[in-house]
Design a protein that fits this description.
By secondary structure, the protein is an alpha/beta fold. The protein is built from nine helices and five strands.
Length: 201
């Protein structure tokens, strides 16, 4: 089903592209970078985000084939409107050495198993917990925010070798994590197009 893009969104992307040349990025990387910037009004993400186009191509295929999408908090889920998501935070409990967010990741993995797309935009401990599991993810969008553990957890994600979208700095958050996933959702299922055209907004 084609997505109807609101004129305000079209104008926002027009202005974004007038300020920042993203044409050198490969298609899915460009889609992710632009939508993250659109969601945050922060062009610095063009230099801060770390992606791999081959990982994104495989994740895009998995997503459009129906792979589960797991989120760490309901705020991320609220930003993903075109796909049902799994969030187990309400069922989770904290314990010695285990945050509620980390426990929610364990519960989610027990539910969905390997091959899911994981979207973490709030809690560094959720990302840290995911890295301890044998989750074999299709993709980890690891964009937690904060002064304690956020940058470190994202560095650990990159060091893990898992297919991932992350950023180097402490910034991040639910809106940008959802935006990165939405970029893959909104991009046409066929990747024949070589640009991030209006239909992928």
């Amino acid at each position: 089903m084609n997505r109807v893009v609101h004129p305000i969104e079209q104008e926002s992307f027009r202005r974004l592209r007038a300020r920042l040349d993203t044409s050198h990025f490969p298609p899915l990387t460009r889609a992710v970078v632009e939508r993250v910037i659109h969601s945050s009004a922060d062009p610095a993400y063009a230099e801060d985000l770390v992606t791999d186009e081959d990982d994104l191509v495989k994740a895009h295929a998995a997503l459009h084939a129906g792979a589960p999408v797991v989120v760490d908090v309901e705020m991320v889920a609220a930003g993903i409107t075109r796909r049902e998501t799994v969030c187990r935070l309400k069922d989770a409990r904290s314990g010695p050495g285990l945050t509620r967010s980390a426990h929610a990741i364990r519960l989610a993995y027990e539910q969905v198993g390997p091959g899911a797309l994981w979207v973490i935009g709030c809690a560094p401990t959720a990302l840290e917990e995911l890295l301890t599991l044998d989750a074999s993810p299709a993709l980890v969008i690891g964009l937690p925010v904060g002064f304690v553990g956020a940058a470190e957890s994202k560095a650990a994600l990159r060091a893990s070798g898992l297919p991932a979208v992350s950023n180097v700095s402490e910034k991040g958050g639910s809106a940008v994590a959802a935006a990165a996933l939405n970029a893959l959702l909104y991009h046409p299922a066929s990747l024949d197009s070589s640009d991030s055209s209006e239909e992928s907004l």
